[in-house]
Amino acid sequence: MKPIRVWLIPPGPNPWKVVLILEELGVPYEIVTIRFDDVKKKPYTDINPNGRCPAIQDPNRDITLWESGAIIQYIIEEYDTDMKLTYDKFPEKHHLNQWLQFQMSGQGPYYGAAAWFNVLHEEKLPTAIERYNAQLKRVLSVLDGWLADRQWLVGDKVTYADLAFVPWNERIDSIILCAPEEKFAGFPNVQAWHERMVSRPAWKRIMEIRAALMEESGLENATGRPARFKSHQEYEEAIARGENTDP
Q1: Domain CATH code at residue 65
Q2: Boundaries of each GST C-terminal domain copy (predicted)?
Q3: Which of 157, 192, 224, 225 would suit a FRET pair with 171, their CA atoms being 20 to 30 Å apart?
Q4: Is the pLDDT assigned to residue 218 strictly greater than 90?
């Protein structure tokens, strides 16, 4: 089997959902690191016209895909033939899709907005910070309630739906600027669920890869920008001017 090519920007959480699924399934892959400066222009926009990561190219099936949820569903359908991370029976297969959609429509956007207003936006807007921090905690409350009497979102094993939540939940402390040990305060069921997943060998392996890529790229862990820029706006303005933004 030829490796699946995965385009990613190392700091971003969404690509690591895809890499985690590939790692769990033992599907060979190769990472192509793209700079934030280049994600909105050719040749990458020929791969993903939306100019976001991740995107994949699978030479085994001759297909290119973007949008992490669509990629996860593709990998599961094509490569999880042993049903390691999925179910093919009714109603579990639909419930898995339900939770993946909640991750895509709820967790990702609200956590991303919270990260923007807490960390990246130059002007601190208390109302925006309050709103999106509250929405982040609302997502956690939904998960915590569901996990009160179960270990996994669907069925009796870890699935792709569970794993899709890990990268964003892992960075809650850097999003809402709290101590790492406080990021799941008030949500003990989510904390236990998350700890079950981050203790898995696949997660540990891909975080070693991420750490190496971050160091190689000279990027800050919290912001994803080169450390020499004082704000994300300064970084984006330098990109717009066509300046060299190397660390």
Answers
A1: 3.40.30.10
A2: 89-225
A3: 157
A4: no
